[in-house]
Prior knowledge:
Helix content: 40-55%
Family: Belongs to the class-III pyridoxal-phosphate-dependent aminotransferase family.
Mean pLDDT: 97
Structural class: alpha/beta
Largest sheet: 7 strands, mixed
Keywords: Aminotransferase, Pyridoxal phosphate, Transferase
GO molecular function, one term: transaminase activity
Number of domains: 2
CATH topology of the largest domain: Aspartate Aminotransferase, domain 2
Low-confidence stretches: none
Number of strands: 15
CATH class of the largest domain: Alpha Beta
Pfam family, one: Aminotran_3
Protein name: Putrescine aminotransferase
CATH superfamily of the largest domain: Type I PLP-dependent aspartate aminotransferase-like (Major domain)
Bound molecules: pyridoxal-5'-phosphate
Amino acid sequence: HMPTAELQALDAAHHMHPFSANTELGREGVRVITRAKGVWLTDSEGEEILDGMAGLWCVNIGYGREELAEVAARQMRELPYYNTFFKTTHVPVIALAQKLAELAPGDLNHVFFSSGGSDANDTNIRLVRTYWQNKGQPDRNVIISRKNAYHGSSVGSSSLGGMAGMHAQGGIIPNIHHINQPNWWAEGGDMTPAEFGLARARELEEAILELGQDRVAAFIAEPVQGAGGVIVAPDTYWPEIQRICDKFGILLIADEVICGFGRTGNWFGSQTLGIRPHIMTVAKGMSSGYVPIGASIICDEVAEVIGMEEFNHGYTYSGHPVAAAVALENLRILEEEKIIDHVRDVAAPYLKQKWESLLVHPLVGEAKIVGMMGSIALTPDKGTRAKFAAEAGTVGYICRERCFKNNVIMRHVGDRMIISPPLVITPAEIDEMFVRIHKSLDEAHAEILE
Ligand code: PLP
């Protein structure tokens, strides 16, 4: 390798980083990741970093699995590319679609492939609008989503998302309506979590009545809001959302891009949260991030209605054979090595116990966790759920930077800190992660008090 400083200089000169300030300050301290194995990353200085985020919530089976590299190489030699646009198909895409249909709950039996989660959600926008069009209700084209949701970065998927900063850079497409998120810690006021969960769910009903039942096509949500800060809804929320979707006959889209493939302790977050979606968005953990691939998994009735006409949609890499073969191998490993059982029986209970023990720390007001995705709220006063006087995110950023220096990757969203480690993490590795997290929080606390 070139020396780190040279790599950093070239990176700064030519590479624009996503979701980053590409300024001198924003680029300061950029680390060059060179290798990874299991839950560990190695940088160009030889530092070993514990990845508490599984990359971007995606490396579910951990890094460095040779089997995936071998499958990719074999598939590249045999059939590196072919499309399925017209009357052609191939074995990897058939096998993966069949496997996803087998794993997905209910009658979610039909798969439309993409290269990731953003373009799968773009597919969903066209799918649900075409569904109602084909049923003779073309005005039924409004999709309801939630503030602070993340559904991707394309203009369509970020319109579904509720990130104000993204809307401010490029605007949003028409006929998307956002309701509030079920974030009790930040927005619950004097209500109990149960009351608040119901109130926030009923905003869906209010929105449907306001917009007109004959205008609303679908509701989209993540079972557990991830990039918004791992916002776990109160228990009353999802049953009420499901009741409302059933009552008004609107399509329910579960964005499982983070929650899918074991993250919540079941194959899909919908199973953990008791949701019955018509469409699921999947990506990330489907290939453990080894190759880019995403999909919409669609129920029988929606697929049948879409199939009435030509569906004018598709990506060059829809069902890419190499991506499909690697994803299939990843699913084989998840299944044969019983990694979701490991989550349920070993990793998640242990992580929950450690995570909730953070509540004794003076900075931590709330600790939420579902399976292998958790968040803590940082606060100057636990009793009143107060926010820091500094600009929102400042304290979160300080904690994140301390973690980074102490070689554990955690992410911050405003003043919440997040973890989402590879599902294969062992109790000993969780112990090591918490040594580093405690050290980082203590250092951040001291810095804030200075
Ligand atoms: N949906 C959710 C819930 C996500 O968390 C993400 C990415 O983080 C996406 C969609 C977008 O997926 P991608 O980055 O693969 O386009």
